[in-house]
Design brief:
The complex is a heterodimer. By secondary structure, chain A is mostly beta strands. Chain A is elongated and about 90 Å long. In chain A, the strands form 2 sheets. In chain A, strands 1, 2, 3, 5, 6, 8 and 9 form a 7-stranded antiparallel beta sheet that branches. Chain A has 2 helices and 11 strands. Helix content of chain B is about 5%, strand content about 55%. The longest helix of chain B has 16 residues. Classes of the chains: A mainly beta, B mainly beta.
Chain lengths: ~180, ~775
Amino acid sequence: MKINALKLPLLAMLVLSLLGCEKDDDNGPDNEQELITTIALKFTGGGQTVTFTAVDKDGDGGSAPVIQNINLKANTNYTLSISFLDESKSPSEDITTEVKAESNDHLVCYAATGTMVSPIASDKDAGGKTLGLESAFKTGAAGAGTLKITLKHEADKSSANACGTGETDAEATFNVSVQ
Amino acid sequence: MEKRWTSLFGMLWLVVGLPAQLLAQDCNLSLRGQVLNADTGLPMPYAGVVIKETQQGVQSDEHGHYQIERICPGEYTIVCSHLGCDHAEQKLTLQRNAVLDIAMKENAVTLENLVVTGSSNKKAGTQTSSELSGVELDAGRGMGLGESLKRLSGVSTLNTGATISKPVIQGLHSNRILIFNNGVRLEGQQWGNEHAPEVDPFTAERITVVKGAASVRYGADALGGIILLEPKPVRQTPGIGGEAHLQGYSNGRGGVASGMLEGKLAKLPLSGRIQGTLKRAGNLQTPNYYLNNTGVSESNFSWSGKFQPEHWVVETFYSRFFTQLGILRDSHIGNLTDLNNAIERGRPLQDGAFSYDLGRPLQKAMHETFRVKLAHALSETDKLSLQLSRQFNRRQEYDAHRRFNPLPETLDDPNIEFEITTWAAELNWDHRLGRNWRGALGSNAQKQINTVDRGALIPNFDNFDWGVYWTERRFKQGSPWEYEFGLRYDLRHLHVAEQGTNNLDEDRNFQNWSASLGVIYALNEDWKLRFNTGSAWRSPLVNELYSSGVHHGSASYEQGNPDLKAERGFNNSLTLEGSRNNHWTMALTSYYNLIDNFIYLQPRSEAQLTIRGAFPAFDYNQADARIMGIDWTGDFTLHKTLHLESKASLLSGWNRELEDYLIYMPPLRFEQGLKWGFNEKKQPDHPSFVRISALWVLQQKQAPVTDYAPPPAGFVRLDAELFHTLMWGKQRLEVGISVFNLLNTEYREYLNRFRYFTVEPGRNLSLRLKVPFNFT
């Protein structure tokens, strides 16, 4: 009797384990990468719309990102609309929709140097806090400087230094010349 | 899967929950122990152990272990016999379960017939090794393999937070250390610093660490050492038995339940065992704040079976390990700016709160091993064995950020997934040559296929390894000298395929030899010197050759170098061992290891610019290195049962080409403990004790300046432990209480990669209970 009591569970374990042998669960590897390759800045104002991009299609490493120089008119009120794209695949994917869908978890930060004042965010996330995909940007007198755009994930938006928290999803520093 | 667990725990519950009177039979005593060669100390397999008065008898297994069950209390004569040895007789009064190790003298006339098994040759031989078993193993294993092994001198850990812990032996870790779980070389994604070994320490009864290059018998790559996990030998007497473990931890409010059930048939030489472990813990707490998302969940299962007809042994073993680890949210950072922000803060953004929830970032790792071993005794002295194994490891990493634009069905897919399948075969011939030489000759082959899904950190690859080895050991009765030498030749073929969308399609070949020589000289009865010298090599790994990308969580960009050559190590170590009865034991090891073409990460002067901003960039580079140090361990009786336990390890790592220190070398550790034993007469086999110990760790002054932050300050930590054996009727209960970080000291460990983001966890009170049980 005792022998049977021992045999049965052992046999059951053996069978279950053999059946349970794991295998590589794909037919082939999925080599698709998930990344933001492009930051596009669309400036509308002064009767024109201009777009400038920072692009790194080959992802981290390889060739460095190509960042266009921004040329804007002096003393003009612009609205700045930022989008993030994955252009490593075809057709390219617009990641901005996801940023909007998870707006509470995202924050776009700006830092300007030189003769400019940083853009002022004009949109809010689902919780009524700053999002930053849309902003107002006023150029002053002619001059030069830089504009750094950073997309933050899970930043602490209630912190005084919200842009110093969270994880950076995308970042580029553009050279700006105002004429 | 779920069903398998339900049935296992249902059975364990039945066994553990049975009324105590079932256990309290009169003739329920057991006698167990190991049969050893009186001269060599090696285990004696297949020796007959018989109780003269009752004629109850068994045969010792291949490790020399034996167990006789269902003995009534009384006075007995134990007779042990073995071909080629004089009979050993020992009188014994049995009142409770007892352990009796039997030493057998070789019979001078038939000396040729001494049996040596593979298992004894597999032991370290002349090399310096330390062992963790019994209470010391029970106390640590709920915390995982790395944390358990920290109890041994010369072993430290490389941590990624408190939940990911990799053993470091004499300054080397990851792929420079081989881990053998029940005879199978663990193959997973060990190249990553944050990839903890996928083994359940509850499957092991004994863990042995062999320090220094041990390539010859175990395979190339073992420049740092070997970790052997050995399960309890299978049951030798008919019936059912097992053990149950319950452990609870205050920090993280964690719990571990582990059970083992084993049995042997009366009519057939067949025995089997099932074993499982469940573990769950939540967020850990430092003295001043909680660490969000640092919980862990683990479920492991294994079974084994052994069939032993005359002259044959057939063993099967299967294990499945599955863990889910939360990673401290604040450690996942986007780029160099984020990292500097985090280091400046030095602690998580928020105070955190307790929770069992496992969120992102998250790691899931599954490891499965299946092996079959066939052994045949060719003669009294020779044994042939063949081992076949298959391993599968799946590692899934979930970043803080989900994949962009997921489809509903891929919403919870990992950001990166590695899958590796390994098939291995090993053929070994244990033999004896002439009077005094015994050795092993064998060959092994291994085939591996690795795929990476999503992400291009490392390429897909497959490789083939083949090796052949020969070791001989000379031991002569009455001579103070003992020698051992070994030779090995290995080759590796590596084929790399796609890396991301780029098909590399490259073939690499590496081949070379390893050799070792060991000498033991007994100065007198108390003192012994061990000297070992050897050379081993390690071929560069796929991440060292082809890594390209930002390593998750470490905010660093790593670039492999396809031109790397193999590493070549030259190890030398000298150990002085001493012991006198119960008064003191000590071991002092000094080692001097040169590693040519040592592969390491060299920081680049310029950061790597990406669309996520700038990352510190590292190139895999190689240079000649030197690692030397001293390990010390001692146990001194101060008064009666009061012991002073002392451990220390000191090492220095040097890049001989750059003339700079090597990064991530353990700083000086020095541990002193006072242990007071009691209840030794009642429980000679499991004596109770109280221990208090202090650990001093000095600041690592020998570190290169290229680190993100300087090494943290030194610290002193106090730990305490109580162990007691109780009898509940006739049932033995082993109870342990430990307090880790008694004073709730705030400190950082240099070898914890999360020291940038947080201090180490605070005080942790743990309770544990072990219930061995036996039905016949």
